[in-house]
Structures are given as C-alpha cells and as structure tokens.
Amino acid sequence: MNKNWFIICAIVLIVTMISPIFFYQQVFGWGLWQTHEEWAQMGSALSGLYTPILSLLTLIVLIIQLFQSNRERNFAICMSTIANLTEQGKENVNTLSVDMQRTLSEVVTDEAIKLTLISLGKNDDEAFDSAKVTISSKEIGEMTYENLLLKIVNSSESESDENYLFFKQLLVNISLKPLAKWMGFNSALVGLYEGASHNKATYQWKNSAINLMGSASSTLGYGVCVSLDKWTKECHRLQGREYKHTYFLNHQGT
C-alpha cells in the first residue's frame, strides 16, 4: 500500500513539474530565441507558473513533516507511558513478593478463626472444631494465610457454600498490607489495557500487559494471583462497590 502511494505521488509530481513547460510550448512554441526580451518573457512566464507550484509543494512537505513529527512524539509518549506502567506494576509485585513471604507465612491463629465465626454468628465449640478441620489438611499441616488464599481458588464462590463464606469472612476480618500493593499492580494493568483500547499501537500495550501478568504469575504464583483477585473483588463488594479489574480471575476459565 505504501509503495503504491509512493508511485502515485511520484507520477503526480512529475506531471505537475512538466505541465507548465508543455503548455507554454503549445501556446508560444519552443526554440532558441534571438533576443534577450524573448528569453526574459519566457523566464517570467515560467517563473509565474512554477512559483505557486513550488510554494504549494513546500507547504505539503512541511505538513507531512509536522504530521510525522507529531506521530513520532505520540509514539514516544506511548512507549514512555508503557514503560512507566510496567515499572510500576513490577515494583508493586516485587514488594508484594517480599510482603507475601513475610506476612502470608504467618499461621492462621485460633483467635482469627473465633473472630470469623462470631462474625458469621457461630460462636460455639462445635463450629470452631469444624472450622479447624476445614482450613487444615494432612499435607499442609498448620494453615498459613498463603495456603488459605490458595484454598479460595477452589471455592465455589456460592453464598450457599459454607466453606466459601468462612474463607471470605476470614480474609475480610484481617487487614494484610500486601493487598494495597496488589491494588497498585492492578492499576498498572488497567492503564495498559485501557491504553490498548484508546491507542493505535495496540500490540505494544497488550503485549506489555500480558508480560506484566506473566511476571506477577512467575513471582507470586498463578494461584496466589487468582486468590488475590478474588479477595480484592470480595472486599469491594462488601463495601457496596463493583470491581471489574480482576484480570487473573477473568482469565482463569479461559
């Protein structure tokens, strides 16, 4: 397509530059004139024809250069924005990884379980024993918050599922610092995906978003990422707000 446009423009330019000489020759003839006045008349006539043509061509070249410069500037801005958002996302993921290792390695305490049961209106020994069995297993032993997040991946997200209600309430009752970092990571993803829908350089935006998700998945683990998405969504829902930017959760079934 670009090659065809180049050929067309070249033909138009050649015709435009030759036309004044052709029309002059058709009207006044062509030859080696004998007097200075005849040469001056021909030069004046051709100058009067070529001056506006060359002025128009100069204007067109300037407009093309301005358009090209503006396109390059916009592309540079897009690349800079992509780089900043990617760096923001990776920084949050790296910080989150450190916080996860420290905070999520903590064991879910009996006090946290009892507080959750009270929130659910189940303050008795039988409910407590059942909850202890629910969040523990022979393979895992003591339940850490990271393992609890992984359990949420397999929950049904049904309000009739008592395990889901218990896991949800247990996480809502605690306030882990890593959640703020996960929100910062998601905001970077939002910027990249929205950039893909509003810019022509769609590939660069989407590719950067996919790479950022891959970086988070390799650093934290895919299951933890999905669980954090579920946790974020649930915390917003309990506050009466809808949260749609759960990219790992949205891609879980795809």
Topology:
Elements: H1 2-28, H2 36-103, H3 110-119, H4 125-134, H5 145-153, H6 162-173, H7 178-198, H8 202-220, H9 222-238, H10 247-250
Helix pairs in contact: 1-2, 2-7, 2-8, 3-4, 3-6, 5-6, 5-9, 7-8, 8-9
Question: How does this model look, in words?
Answer:
By secondary structure, the protein is mainly alpha-helical. The chain has a domain at 110-173. 78% of the residues lie in helices and 0% in strands. The chain contains ten helices and no strands. α2 packs parallel to α8 (202-220), α5 (145-153) packs across α9 (222-238) and α7 (178-198) runs antiparallel to α8 (202-220). The radius of gyration is 35 Å and the shape is rod-shaped.
Note the main attributes of this structure.
254 residues; mainly alpha
Give a short overview:
By secondary structure, the chain is mainly alpha-helical.
Helicity, as a percent range: over 70%
Radius of gyration: 35 Å
What is the CA-CA span between the terminal residues? 37 Å
The average pLDDT value, as a whole number, equals 76
